[in-house]
Design brief:
This protein is of the alpha+beta class. It contains 22 helices and 21 strands. Helix content is 38%, strand content 20%. The relative contact order is 0.10.
């Protein structure tokens, strides 16, 4: 009996224990449910909502870029892109194998592409292929149920109807980088967005980009779309009008084909750039895709540097073009007059060293005007000796050299105007008098861009009044609202010099073209063109003699028309083109002729 009692007592205790365990478990479950439903309600509601609704941003049409007459230079075309959503994948390895097989993609490249964005949330779509063919689109749509991790979307793709036309002006697009995505400057941009990287596409990105649209998709637990609600349509970007003249730009590029160099054509009255060509150029349509490593590598490794905008970034010795600055400095400082003459016998001794003229027989007795006309080195050697390097450098800078012009393009270079302070700081050496003589004819460490030379020419044509070179004509916003550039400030203040000083220099430039001077290759009957040639020595004279002499020099010409009513400035440089009068001047002539035919 006692044994039975003990067994019942033990059983009773066990039942009580189980009851308490059950009670505690029920309390814990109840507390957990209460926590989820009350304390964590917002969190789980948002999570459930996110699993049910998916946000899709719609890419807007990028704004058109057109020339001054409305001719379309950059537009858009319809295309499809394919994105991969990592959140919808259970077995990524298997998924990537199947996706690569479906689209004939390189699996490792696909893996590398996704790993690049590992730091971003898994729900963010990563573009894995763009500009799909209709065959690829059909294949994806027929397998959509099998691949919930894939999202097929339409997107406007940039299209350049003339390929390489004005490539350095228009610039190209590239996919936004992770660093850019993290920058406040690119707030509102998303993974996979294409943005302007160079040229006008970069400079006026905010005008061109437009505003994204938004779609809220309803999806099931597997991430498959079951419906959608359109929230906001995308707004196209603004239409950007450039100052470029299509015909002049096309002609400039045609004249540079097969050469390396640059051409700048600008309106002397207001600084509007009518043509800005750099050659070799490149096909802009090779940059419309996110995946073009081979084309990119090929362009980067090309020894002729087709991506370099020589018009604003090419640094060249100005050669005899710089004699225009020397003439201005000499007259304005009072160190010379037009009556001042020097004897040119083809060579001269200065500071005990021989310096040669390009014309070996010599020009005889020359004054300022004939020195400009025939580009006499001996004359300007002597002017350089009279002025000294500091005065030369000061006037060069006042003429805009050594400074950015302020053109509305990224990446412009300022060039270099050397002086004793620069040499001491950069080469840790004193300035030698003989270096001044070299600078006096545009040689030595003096460096300019073709655009700076065009601005210098405009300054002379306008008798000391400056204009800022620019490419933006106007922006057409939604509803046809036209926005003009706010203000286009001068490079610096106008060059305050007597107008008669400029008239004397212009007389020499006119004679250079129209009276048997070095610029006669630019002569055009019935059109008062004023100009100056230059031939820049890029290797030593002794080496040049061994390799073929003048063939290794760069060929310059810069000029304006007409003499009394300047409207157009043309600047040409042809790398290794020989004498400026033989190569660059005839090129300029064709552009003057086209301009006169079209506008005069």
């Amino acid at each position: 009996m006692a044994k039975i009692y003990e067994d019942l007592s033990s059983l009773h205790r066990r039942i009580k224990l189980v009851q308490w365990v059950v009670i505690v478990l029920v309390i814990l479950v109840a507390m957990f449910i209460w926590k989820m439903q009350v304390l964590d309600y917002n969190y789980f509601w948002q999570k459930a909502e996110n699993n049910r609704l998916r946000e899709i941003k719609l890419t807007p049409q990028r704004g058109l870029i057109v020339d001054r007459e409305g001719k379309i230079l950059a537009k858009n075309r319809a295309s499809f892109k394919l994105s991969y959503i990592r959140e919808n994948v259970k077995d990524r390895k298997q998924s990537l194998t199947r996706v690569a097989q479906l689209l004939s993609l390189d699996k490792q490249q696909l893996i590398n592409r996704l790993e690049k964005y590992n730091s971003l949330p898994a729900f963010m779509p990563i573009v894995i292929k763009d500009d799909l063919t209709m065959e690829e689109v059909a294949k994806i749509e027929s397998h959509q149920i099998e691949f919930p991790e894939l999202r097929l979307e339409m997107e406007p793709l940039r299209d350049y109807p003339y390929g390489s036309f004005a490539s350095h002006v228009l610039g190209y697009l590239q996919e936004i980088s992770l660093d850019e995505l993290r920058s406040p400057e690119f707030s509102g941009y998303d993974v996979g967005d294409m943005i302007g990287k160079t040229g006008i596409e970069y400079q006026y990105e905010r005008d061109l980009v437009g505003r994204k649209g938004l779609i809220i998709e309803v999806v099931d637990s597997l991430g498959r779309k079951t419906g959608e609600v359109v929230q906001r349509s995308p707004t196209p970007g603004n239409k950007v009008f450039l100052t470029l003249d299509f015909d002049l730009q096309a002609k400039a590029e045609e004249l540079l084909q097969g050469r390396e160099g640059a051409i700048v054509v600008l309106d002397a009255r207001n600084g509007e750039i009518l043509a800005l060509a750099s050659y070799p150029n490149f096909d802009l349509n090779k940059f419309i895709h996110r995946f073009s490593p081979q084309e990119w590598t090929s362009l980067i490794q090309d020894q002729s540097h087709p991506l370099e905008n020589r018009a604003i970034r090419g640094l060249y010795s100005p050669g005899s073009i710089f004699k225009l600055v020397m003439a201005l400095a000499g007259l304005d400082s009072g160190r010379i007059t037009t009556r001042k003459t020097f004897l040119c016998t083809g060579t001269t001794l200065i500071y005990g060293h021989p310096f040669s003229c390009w014309y070996e027989p010599g020009h005889g007795v020359v004054n300022l005007i004939s020195a400009i006309q025939h580009s006499c080195n001996i004359y300007f050697y002597n002017v350089g000796r009279l002025l000294g390097i500091q005065t030369i450098a000061d006037y060069a800078r006042r003429c805009g050299l050594g400074h950015l012009t302020g053109i509305d393009l990224p990446g412009e270079k300022a060039g270099l105007v050397p002086d004793p302070e620069w040499k001491k700081k950069n080469r840790h050496e004193p300035w030698y008098p003989g270096e001044t003589i070299s600078v006096a004819i545009g040689q030595g460490p003096l460096l300019v861009t073709p655009l700076q030379v065009a601005c210098l020419t405009s300054l002379i044509a306008r008798r000391g009044r400056k204009t800022a070179p620019h490419l933006l004509l106007q922006v057409e916003k939604r509803g046809g609202v036209i926005e003009k550039p706010n203000s286009l400030a001068s490079l610096n203040n106008d060059l305050v010099s007597a107008e008669e000083i400029f008239e004397k220099i212009i007389t020499g430039m006119w004679r250079s073209v129209n009276a048997g001077g070095t610029g006669q290759g630019a002569r055009l009957d019935g059109y008062d063109i004023c100009g100056k040639t230059g031939s820049t020595q890029v290797i030593s004279r002794s080496t040049a003699d061994k390799l073929g002499g003048q063939i290794k020099t760069h060929s310059w010409f810069t000029g304006f028309a007409s003499r009394d009513k300047p409207r157009i400035v043309v600047t040409v440089i042809v790398e290794h083109g020989g004498m400026g009068g033989q190569t660059a001047a005839p090129i300029a002539r064709e552009l003057f002729e086209l301009y006169r035919r079209k506008y005069d």
